[in-house]
Structure formats: structure tokens, C-alpha cells
Write a structure and sequence with these properties.
The chain is α+β, with helices and mostly antiparallel strands and 101 residues long. It has 3 helices and 4 strands. The strands form 2 sheets. A two-stranded antiparallel sheet has the order 1-2. The two termini are 21 Å apart.
């Protein structure tokens, strides 16, 4: 590969859940984490990654089950499963057609 080569990367997608558990797109450049967030202060948090090919995330139910297990293991409260499923579906549907991540 040529020096400085960078494969094409789509702009970041960021979705958040509102207080009612509904997913909404968010500006990835805007600060979203409160200063007293324990994930930042103490590293208390969990995450899960998923392969996406619009309009769906590959094996999302298994990923969400693993996420729930990780959260239980470290005593982190997650939003309801249905809200997380909606969040994943909204983000996957917004992913550019023909792109995989």
C-alpha cells in the first residue's frame, strides 16, 4: 500500500436513546457524556460491537444478549431490551447502502 493510504470510511453514525427510550440520531462531534459519568471516571461500563450491512446488524440478538450478560457481571443498568433493539435497528437502517462495518 502507498504511504498515507486510508481506506474509505463513512462519516460516523451516532444514535442515542431519549428519556422515553426512543432512538434519535446525534451529532458525533457534540459532547454527550456528563462529567460525572462513572464509565469515564472509573471505567465502569460495557460495550458491544456489531457488523452492519444496511439495513441490518448481523446477529443483533446474540450481541444484545452478550451485552446484557456483561452489564449484569459489572452491575451496570441498561435500557430495556426493546429500546436497545430499536436503537440497533435505527442505526443499521441509517447506515449507507452498500457499505459494511
Amino acid at each position: 500500500m502507498a504511504p498515507g493510504y486510508r481506506p474509505s470510511v463513512p462519516d460516523p453514525l451516532l444514535f442515542v436513546l431519549d428519556a422515553q427510550g426512543e432512538p434519535h440520531p446525534a451529532d458525533p462531534r457534540a459532547p454527550l457524556v456528563p462529567a460525572d459519568d462513572l464509565a469515564l471516571l472509573r471505567g465502569e461500563g460495557v460495550f458491544e460491537t456489531m457488523r452492519v450491512a444496511a439495513p441490518r446488524a448481523h446477529d443483533a440478538p446474540a450481541h444484545l444478549t452478550r451485552l446484557a450478560g456483561s452489564a449484569l457481571a459489572v452491575d451496570v443498568e441498561l435500557p430495556p431490551r426493546g429500546a436497545l433493539e430499536q436503537l440497533v435497528a435505527a442505526a443499521a437502517a441509517a447506515w449507507p447502502e452498500g457499505e459494511e462495518a
